[in-house]
Design a protein that fits this description.
By secondary structure, the protein is mostly beta strands. It is 11% helix and 46% strand. It is built from 1 helix and 10 strands; from the N terminus they run H-E-E-E-E-E-E-E-E-E-E. This is Gliding motility lipoprotein GldH.
């Protein structure tokens, strides 16, 4: 009985935290099955609500202790409604110098909110497609990591800049 009460309390508390996120405009995750294959692209289709306001963009990741690297390389591509494409290769730190994984979470899953772009104005009306692919390599090896372990979910987030 106590366990079900604590689970219910946790669910309600999580719902309250999520619903109080006033900066969120778009926030979606997609699961990665077992490992993230180097050719697997995770895509998000977005219709920004405003063509004048600036937004901050983030790549969100959930990873487990099976993630064995200190950093993460991603290729992030944004395709605009009229065909223009921007492609970036990004590097993120995933662990401190001692190897302890960064991110939030008290369980074996860490959540990372990684900056992608700041103060972006979506000037074109219509659908934008954001695609995310890993580009990991091991030191001293030419070929990339084919099956990346430890990433469980890939997400994309758009938020209003905080007024701090």
């Amino acid at each position: 009985m106590k366990r079900s009460s604590s689970v219910l309390f946790s669910l309600i508390f999580s719902f309250v935290l999520v619903s109080c996120d006033s900066n969120r405009v778009f926030d979606t995750y997609k699961p990665v099955p077992n490992t993230w294959h180097k050719d697997s692209v995770v895509s998000f289709t977005v219709n920004p609500p405003d063509s004048i306001k600036p937004y901050n963009l983030f790549v969100n990741l959930r990873n487990t202790n099976d993630y064995k690297f200190n950093n993460l390389y991603l290729i992030v591509e944004m395709v605009f409604p009229h065909g223009k494409t921007i492609k970036d290769t990004l590097e993120y730190r995933m662990a401190d110098p001692n190897g302890k994984l960064l991110g939030t979470g008290i369980t074996g899953v860490k959540e990372n909110k990684l900056w992608y772009k700041e103060h972006v104005v979506f000037k074109e009306a219509g659908e934008y497609v954001v695609s995310i692919q890993h580009a990991m390599r091991e030191n001293g090896k030419v070929n990339g990591v084919v099956e990346l372990e430890g990433i469980t979910d890939v997400g994309f987030r758009i938020e209003n800049p905080s007024s701090k």
